[in-house]
Model the fold of this input.
Amino acid sequence: MAKINCEDRNPRNKVDLSNIKKIAAKTLKSLKKGRAEVNIVFVTNPEIRAMNRRYLGADRATDVLAFDGVCEGVSGMRNFLGDIVISTDQVLKNAKEFGTEFRGETALCVIHGILHLLGYRDGTRGEKGVMRKMEGELLEKVGKLA
Done:
C-alpha cells in the first residue's frame, strides 16, 4: 500500500488531507506504483515562488513542483518517489480562471506531480500532450474523490 505523507502550510486555502491521500494512493495504484511513498506539501504563492526561483530559476509562482527522491544506495528508500509541493493559492486562481472546482484542480495537481515523479515531462508539445492525456485518464479514475 502506498504511503502518502501530507502537510498543509497554507492557512488560507485549506485542503482535506485525508482525501488527498486517497487521491494520491489511487493514482499510484493505477500506475502500478502502489507501494510507493510520496510527500505532498501545500504552501502559499510566496513559498512556492521562492522554491521555483531557487531550484528552477523561474521567479514566479506556479501551481505544482515535483522533486524526485532518487537516493541511490540508501537502504529503505527504494519506494520513495519524492516530494510534491502545491500552492493552493495558485490552485484557487487556476480554478477561477478555468471555471473548475478547487477540489478537482487540487486533484489534478496531485496527479501532475506524481507523473513528474515517475519521469513524465511536459517541456515539449508532444510531452505535454502525453501528460495531459494521462492526467485526464487518471482524473477520471479518481473522479469520485476529487
